[in-house]
Amino acid sequence: MQDIIDKLSRLIRDAAAQKRPLCIRGGGTKDFYGGPVHGYKLNTGDYRGIVDYEPTELVITARAGTPLAEIEAALRQKGQMLAFEPPQFGEGSTLGGCVATGLSGPRRPYSGAVRDFVLGVRILDGKGDDLRFGGQVMKNVAGYDVSRLITGSLGTLGVLLEVSLKVLPLPVSETTLRLKCTEAEAIERMNRWAAQPLPITATAYRDGDLGVRLSGARVAVEAAAKKIGGAPVAPAQAEHFWTGIREQTDPSFAGDAPLWRLSVKSTTPPLALPGQQLIEWGGALRWLKSGADAKTVRDAATRAGGHATLFRGGDKTIGVFHPLPPALMKLHRNLKQAFDPAGILNPGRLYADL
Amino acid sequence: MTAVAEQVAVDFARQREVVAALRAFLPQSSILFDHEDVKPYECDGLTAYRQVPMVVALPETEDQVCRILKTCHALKVPVVARGAGTGLSGGALPLGNGVLLSLAKFKRIVEIDERARIARVQPGVRNLAISEAVAPLGLYYAPDPSSQSACTIGGNVAENSGGVHCLKYGLTVHNILRLRVATVEGDIVEIGSEALDAAGYDLLALITGSEGLLAVILEVTVRLLPKPEYAQVVMAAFDDIEKAGQSVANVIAAGIIPAGFEMMDQAATRAVEGFARAGYRTDVAAVLLCETDGTREEVADEIRRVQELMDASGAVQTEVSRDEAQRLRFWAGRKAAFPAAGAISPDYYCMDGTIPRRRIAEVLRRITQLETKYGLRCANVFHAGDGNLHPLILYDANLPGELDRTEAFGAEILELCLEVGGTITGEHGVGVEKINSMCVQFKPAELEAFHRVKRAFDERGLLNPGKAVPTLTRCAEYGRMHVHRGQEKFPDLPRF
Question: Burial of B449 by CB count in 10 Å (0-12 exposed, 13-18 middle, 19+ buried)?
Fold first, then answer.
């Protein structure tokens, strides 16, 4: 495996010397996400396999090219899971892509995001140096938290080689309930429930239906189900529903209109924007299928205390991610310079000048 | 601990220059520079290191903080930010040529949003004060470092503080949403948002735990959680460390994530029992506390399983807290571990490594061997849930050579933590205390990357310089004495 690292490192050094952009690629399932993809393909898919997994430590370490499906299968076998429920968006999706995009699924507001579970990384920086940050233990404050900085940086700061993640036990029991209500009622309920000690692990609202997933000890799930009310959904149907939200195969994501992701304060009232919306994350995430212009969408997200991403489709030249204030952008540029002085790692994938 | 203990004398001409510049916008009462006024700031919770600061500034407004930073930046004066000064790694140790920036006056809870379950607080608000303020709403702020009645949220962010409930509820980084910070140039930047994520790099995570080297924290937005309905604790006694360690693995393997999971060795339980009368057995090798929380039904179910697992793991005794009073009594012992160590020894030195849980028995055995080697006693308390080990080395600073031996003992424990796959600091931070051990944990290219991160925020190196990340020169000097895992760490550096 060291030969693969040596080869990747050599390719990075050569590219840096010639200022030739590299496009880091694992399974290629998330090419649609972020700014335009260009440059010489740096394939990380060969650097794969689980390095260390000790269930009683609640930690797994795997190479970036390891398919997510392989990791999730290994965990399931021991009754554990990736609690941030990463979306795969297609076959062959890898751990590296999961961490580089930093995307989390329906469980995120209740268990945490990818970045909350990342304990350590091994990367090649923009000079081809092989560096390790963080570690394989839960609590570690030695050095700056570069592992979490790398998470979600879309490959612009380094090429992921290995990642250590905290894992959690699979819940013993699970129930999904469906309630009929308006959008405003749904937002109100999601927030009210979140203030109570209820074992909620996912919420989603679309077209008059509010779905709530409860997970945990059987007694706790049963007691909470009584409190929440609504109609229980058959397990297979529930599984299909939450997979549809996580993988965006649910009908609300269909159609040609651009897909916007608005990450907002959870109590934000219904957003008066044209197009179709799906709400999840306890009200904190609003998916919008809409042809509305970028300024309208971004202004709405800003007013709601958050930010908007042009997630799929649309005109990427307007900038996929929410523009940053100048002082913040300056810090981003400085950090890019610190990790990738030649500016060759996935340039433009996050922001045009990174 | 003696490595940086040389006091730097104050340059009075420089002091006059800085004081004059600060007086342009700060009231006289907000600037301290007389020796007796600045003396109380000479150390934080790590009292072995002391340094009187050149000037102490006590601003009351964000604007004043920014102007202090601008002034210091222009004059190239280093700045050390300080909250309550309870840190255990010397992160707030002043500089003799610098300004100590106290955020003590920033004590306001700015906003509590009950519906959104967030609170916006100033950096000088005490950790416990947040939970107390939101308790009537049935909410609380989860991270609970043992110093929570005194330590401030600003310091918690700077150190990424944990507590006994980390395994289930996370560290500071998992429980904050947004930071308002001032850069070294005195510009205000908002990091994160009231949403669950923010556009761009995760600077929220990067600044959390950066020990005051990247920015000064002006305001923190924390997440509040619903208070669990009920909690109960199992106390289990083991006559064998190996079995105690295995019981921890057995509970986790059974799919249980306890809210708190603590282990004390015999030296620790004996110290604690004499001090706090918590009801621990003192004739056993280890005592474990395992707490679960949630609904009553959930807790009843989980506690029963925990007790069964402990019994099956070979506990010589298990006891479930009958009521809240007994639960708190069980915890009172663990929480008194540090003062209890102080009561049985003139001085103690608290270490803070993290190890993979499964190595605990081996690590404790080797610490016992080191006790013989150094001729010093050591009591061990262990956050068994998350692998964070606090060996308390007992010593007497008045006995010649004991402090040096303690320091060497501590450094060897940290290297032991690294050897088994852990880290030199789980929650106390590097500060000045563990700066040499950083040379063992990271290779030069990684330390250089840290320095580049620092420069991305603070090109002139004026924010808390000399802490957290060692220079390569320093490592080269330290490396002369230490060869890690049989490898020379700095083969390319000149030796002097």
Answer: buried
SS3 call for A6: helix
Query: A203: which strand partners?
Result: A212
Over range B366-387, report the average pLDDT. Answer: 95
Mean pLDDT of chain A: 97
CB contact B256 to A (< 8 Å): yes
User: Domain end: B82, B102, B122, which one?
Assistant: B102
Q: Are residues B196 and B273 in the same domain?
A: no
Q: Same structural domain for residues B415 and B314? A: yes
Residues B258 and B326 in one domain: yes
Q: How far is CA A134 from CA A130, B143, B427, in A?
A: 14, 20, 13
* pLDDT > 70 fraction of chain B, expressed in percent and rounded: 95
Query: HSE of B405 in the Cβ direction (CA atoms, 13 Å)?
Result: 20
**Residues B96-118: pLDDT tens digits?**
999 999 999 999 999 999 999 99
B257/A79 touch (CB, cutoff 8 Å), yes or no: no
Residue B4 confidence (pLDDT) above 70: no
> What is the domain count for chain B?
4
B461 and B427 housed in the same domain:
no
Query: What percent of chain A is predicted at pLDDT more than 70?
Result: 100
**Domain contains B357:** yes
Q: Are A2-169+333-339 and A173-246 equal in CATH topology?
A: no
ipTM above 0.95, yes or no: yes
Smallest Cβ–Cβ distance between A194 and the set B117, B183, B193 belongs to B117
CATH code for residues A2-169+333-339: 3.30.465.10
Which residues of chain B are within 8 Å of residue A351 when distances are taken between CB atoms?
Answer: 200
Of all residues in chain B, what percent carry a pLDDT higher than 90?
87
Boundary of a domain, candidates B78, B102, B126: B102
Q: Distance between CA atoms of B69 and B216, rounded to whole angstroms?
A: 9
Query: What CA–CA distances, in Å, run from A118 to A113, B34, B169, B173, B387?
Result: 9, 47, 15, 12, 16
Q: Give the residue on A whose Cα is nearest the Cα of B212.
A: A144
Best probe of the B interface among A56, A139, A164, A166, by most B CBs < 10 A, is A139
Q: Which residue did the predictor score with more confidence, B431 or B489?
A: B431
- Please say whether the structural domain A173-246 has been given the CATH code 3.30.70: yes
* CA–CA gap between residue B374 and residue B372 (Å, rounded): 6
Instruction: Take residue A352 and report the two structure tokens written for it.
Output: 């045009």
Our CA-based measurement puts residue A227 at a distance from the nearest CA of chain B, in whole angstroms, of 13
Chain B CA closest to residue A170: B255
Q: Do A79 and B255 touch (CB under 8 A)?
A: yes
Over range B349-370, report the average pLDDT.
94
B493 lies in a domain? no
Task: Please determine, for residue B481, whether its predicted confidence score (pLDDT) is greater than 90.
Answer: no
Size of interface A-B (CB pairs under 8 A): 266
A325, B190: Cβ pair inside 8 Å? yes
Q: What is the pLDDT of residues B412-432, one digit of tens each?
A: 999 999 999 999 999 999 999
Q: Do B201 and A335 touch, CB atoms closer than 8 A?
A: yes
Same domain, B269 and B396: yes
Domain that holds residue B77: 12-102
| pLDDT score for B480 | 61
Asked whether residue B492 is domain-assigned, the answer is no
List of chain A residues whose C-beta atoms are within 8 Å of the C-beta of residue B208: 145
Domain ranges of chain A: 2-169+333-339, 173-246, 251-318
* Preferred mutation among A60, A140, A172, A333 to probe B, highest tally of B CBs within 10 A: A140
Same domain, B276 and B398: yes
Whether B491 is in a domain gets the answer: no
d(CA A140, nearest CA chain B) in Å:
4
Residue B178 and residue B241 in one domain: no
Provide the pLDDT confidence category of residue B6 given band limits of 50, 70 and 90: low
Distances (CA, A) of B378 to A289, B38, B101: 62, 34, 36
pLDDT band at B164 (very low <50, low <70, confident <90, very high): confident
How close A292 comes to chain B (CA, Å)? 20
Strand A40-43 versus strand A22-25 pairing type: parallel
